[in-house]
What does this fold into?
Amino acid sequence: MTLARVKEFHPSQCREAASIPREPLGTCRVASIKLKKSTLTPPRGSIYEDLAEVAL
It folds into this structure.
């Protein structure tokens, strides 16, 4: 699940995200969270790399 994509970070993005109403969407078990990097390549599309993984 992609929570956010940021091309260039600005502190106002955090304030904007914090203002989104929180509503329950359901539940699921999560074993780990991965920080991913995507590199856009014109001939092949996005290439995804795992930068870090945190077990929960």
User: Anything to note?
Assistant: The chain has a mean pLDDT of 87. The two ends are 16 Å apart (CA to CA).
